[in-house]
Recover the amino acids of this structure.
């Protein structure tokens, strides 16, 4: 009996040990990855790196100015398209009963979230690139806006559902029309939650490469025309990473460093907005 | 009288705006449904030339040769399944232990908070960066491993891609597993503890049986993720259109072949065949997603 | 009755297929306090939510019959406009948490798009807060968020918010049930002062409260008005056995 108990306790401890060890091991890749990118990237970063354009093969130096500008522009346009649509859809979900539109649209959000990004790229290519006969930053933005939608819609729905009903009633009882109650009382009360979803969406698409391959396509030069091909950070990383030139690899490491830092900052930002949100209610 | 007219005008304006607001909301939900349907339709219609020309040969044929116009996607199907399943095999023990660590052993405390954030961060790192890092960090390691094993030291291939893919899906499945573990009723665990069970026994005989369906949903959804993962795999799998003969062999997945060849595809059937691969991915991931989410939803209630 | 401001005529209300108000015929006196009493589930809250047409915002909620305000059937008016003339204070204080105290009081104007200049706004805010007996406590913090106020202060802020719209009727739905006795006393005192210029209908769970502050009382039972009269009469000489049981504390 005592023997048995000792065996059971030992087994218990061994298992716990395994859980802790496996957990620690799974953090190792993250640490390695971050360290590696910082090590490779930090030496590339200087003022010139941010402000100049990539140099042709064989020349030393050059920067990623075009990709930085391109990424910002593509994401900005994507956000501007996704936010209004995502918020109105989320608002629809937050207040509607479970009729067939609700169910089908909800299913659509789930499906959209699961579609591989490369497939989104194909679809947008067929919609916006092939008919016009040219790649464009705008089509890239559309692809990214589709990928941002689920997080914006879901956070809007969940946040608005959390806004106390009493607030809505207070406004309605003052004779404020329903639409104004939603827009000027309920939305502001949930704004940090919605914002959180938007940042989360931006963080999700900031590093997306696959949907841009056949849409924004990339561009070695600086372009501000969203109806022309445009460079972006993930694209430049991909193209330079698989190229055979060391100098381009250096640029890709620098770009990776910038991209990882961006995603990190966005993630921390979502944590902060999340916290502020929780304190309020 | 003047007042009366003004009043009716105010009311009419109010009604119009109110209706406009409600219409806008329901319209966006309907547009979403239509868009998703159109997405599917677009893929289907654009795949038709390939479906007509190739038929079932598309699935069982393993020659992919644009020059002779033969398009059999079997090697990509196999490549995708192999990398995804291998990645699941490698990652599941880790996701499960992270889930147990955060959901059962240490749900609170600074280390768990740190771990949770670290895992989320891991999920946020772009795929292309995993691929880039994989080329320079994982590939040399695999190459030396291959040398020791006597395999051709290529470095890239199915195994390398699966390894990096497994790191990428850990955060996703770990957070799902943590969620289902935290939903095990405390009373159930307490009952077992009160009978003198050790923690291991509680996990083994109470928690694991209780979360079985949730666990399988988590793994299923992770599979859905892995199937469609593109960039890292494209950069690490070696891009060879042939059936892989070993784990270290190079290969191609459905997603990677699209990424590599889509912009270069000339010829109607070639282009359409690549879209058909996309359609296939769309359908498979959608089915997996719907099943997985339904299991989770049923588990939650 | 003389000085009637509100009158119901064969009024019924439903939630889906359950009838919550049955055949209501009751009149409310102008510039008086009317208390609505009754055990929980008797329809008293539903009744006042029908007066400003908030009841119909619930799903499957329906009504039949008429409610006259100043001789006009409110069910033939636009509900949104109607609510601007009828103030309502809820069980739990619900100031707008994204707005300052000042903005809260003036919210009925700003949200409805009424243009007031700075001086007019200041007057409305000061007057309303004075009327709600809150001015002295918050006059130095007008531009802070209302959330730091105590529960009782928040409730008075909500009263001020309603009063700012100069409503014809002020509806209060158990306004003190979430408050401590001192805050409750303050609000009762305040209501007493307000009836000079406002008609007040208060739903209350608290029989003593009804006896203390109201001029008229109505006793609701299972969706029906089983008795309504001057408060004095109801408490000294109830005609109905249910009323008697209720006010002597035998159920509820």
């Amino acid at each position: 009996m005592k023997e048995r108990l000792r065996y059971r306790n030992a087994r218990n401890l061994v298992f716990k040990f395994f859980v802790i060890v496996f957990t620690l091991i799974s953090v190792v890749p993250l640490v390695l990855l971050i360290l590696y990118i910082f090590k490779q990237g930090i030496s590339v970063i200087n003022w010139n790196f941010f402000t100049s354009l990539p140099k042709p093969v064989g020349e030393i130096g050059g920067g990623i100015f075009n990709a930085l500008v391109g990424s910002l522009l593509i994401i900005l346009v994507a956000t501007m398209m996704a936010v209004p649509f995502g918020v109105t859809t989320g608002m629809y979900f937050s207040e509607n009963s479970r009729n067939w539109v609700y169910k089908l649209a909800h299913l659509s959000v789930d499906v959209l979230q699961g579609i591989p990004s490369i497939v989104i790229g194909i679809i947008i290519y067929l919609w916006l690139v092939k008919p016009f006969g040219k790649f464009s930053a705008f089509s890239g933005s559309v692809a990214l806006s589709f990928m941002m939608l689920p997080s914006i819609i879901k956070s809007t729905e969940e946040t608005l559902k959390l806004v106390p009903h009493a607030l809505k009633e207070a406004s309605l009882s003052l004779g404020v029309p329903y639409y104004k109650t939603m827009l000027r009382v309920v939305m502001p009360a949930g704004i940090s939650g919605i914002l959180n979803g938007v940042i989360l969406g931006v963080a999700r698409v900031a590093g997306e490469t696959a949907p841009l391959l056949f849409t924004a396509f990339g561009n070695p030069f600086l372009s501000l025309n969203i109806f022309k091909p445009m460079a972006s950070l993930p694209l430049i990383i991909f193209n330079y990473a698989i190229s055979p030139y060391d100098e381009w690899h250096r640029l890709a490491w620098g770009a990776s460093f910038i991209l990882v830092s961006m995603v990190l900052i966005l993630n921390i930002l979502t944590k902060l907005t999340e916290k502020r949100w929780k304190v309020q209610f | 009288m003047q007042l009366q007219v003004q009043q009716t005008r105010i009311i009419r304006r109010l009604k119009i705006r109110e209706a406009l607001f409600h219409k806008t909301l329901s319209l966006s939900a309907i547009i979403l449904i239509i868009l998703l349907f159109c997405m599917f339709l677009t893929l289907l219609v654009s795949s038709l030339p390939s479906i007509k020309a190739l038929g079932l040969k598309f699935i069982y044929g393993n020659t992919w040769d644009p020059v002779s116009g033969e398009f059999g996607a079997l090697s990509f199907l196999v490549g995708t399944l192999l990398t995804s399943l291998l990645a699941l095999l490698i990652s599941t023990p880790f996701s499960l232990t992270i889930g147990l660590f955060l959901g059962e052993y240490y749900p609170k405390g600074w280390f768990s908070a740190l771990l949770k954030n670290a895992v989320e961060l891991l999920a946020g790192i772009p795929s292309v960066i995993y691929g880039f890092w994989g080329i320079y960090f994982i590939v040399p390691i695999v190459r030396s491993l291959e040398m020791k094993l006597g395999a051709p030291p290529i470095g890239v291939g199915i195994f390398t891609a699966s390894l990096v893919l497994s790191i990428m899906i850990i955060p996703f499945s770990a957070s799902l597993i943590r969620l289902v573990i935290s939903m095990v009723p405390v009373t159930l665990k307490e009952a077992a503890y009160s009978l003198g069970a050790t923690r291991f026994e509680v996990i083994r005989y109470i928690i694991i049986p209780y979360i079985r369906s949730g666990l399988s949903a988590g793994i299923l959804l992770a599979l859905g993720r892995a199937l469609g993962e593109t960039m890292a795999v494209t950069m690490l799998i070696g891009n060879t259109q042939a059936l892989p003969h070993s784990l270290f062999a190079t290969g191609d997945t459905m997603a990677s072949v699209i990424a590599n060849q889509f912009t270069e595809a000339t010829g109607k059937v070639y282009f359409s065949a690549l879209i058909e691969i996309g359609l296939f991915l769309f359908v498979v991931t959608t089915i997996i997603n719907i099943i997985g989410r339904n299991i989770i939803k049923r588990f939650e209630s | 009755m003389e000085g009637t401001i509100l009158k119901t005529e064969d009024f019924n209300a439903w939630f889906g297929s359950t009838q919550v108000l049955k055949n209501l015929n009751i009149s409310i006196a102008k510039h008086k306090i009317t208390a609505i009493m009754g055990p929980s589930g008797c329809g008293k809250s539903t009744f006042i939510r029908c007066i400003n047409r908030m009841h119909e915002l619930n799903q499957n909620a329906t009504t039949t019959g008429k409610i006259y305000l100043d001789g006009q059937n409110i069910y033939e008016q636009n509900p949104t406009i109607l609510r601007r003339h009828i103030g309502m204070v809820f069980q739990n204080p619900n100031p707008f948490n994204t707005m300052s105290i000042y903005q809260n009081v003036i919210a009925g104007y700003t949200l409805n798009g009424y243009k007031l200049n700075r001086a007019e706004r200041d007057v409305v805010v000061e007057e309303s807060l004075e009327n709600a007996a809150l001015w002295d406590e918050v006059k130095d913090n007008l531009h802070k968020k209302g959330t730091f106020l105590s529960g009782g202060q928040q409730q008075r802020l909500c009263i001020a918010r309603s009063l700012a719209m100069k409503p014809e009727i002020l509806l209060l739905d158990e306004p003190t049930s979430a408050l401590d006795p001192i805050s409750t006393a303050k609000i009762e005192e305040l209501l007493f002062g307000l009836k000079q210029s406002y008609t007040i209908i208060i739903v209350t769970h608290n029989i003593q409260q009804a006896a203390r502050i109201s001029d008229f009382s109505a006793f609701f039972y299972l969706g029906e008005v089983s008795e309504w009269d001057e408060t004095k009469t109801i408490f000294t000489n109830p005609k109905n056995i249910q009323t008697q049981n209720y006010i002597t504390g035998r159920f509820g």
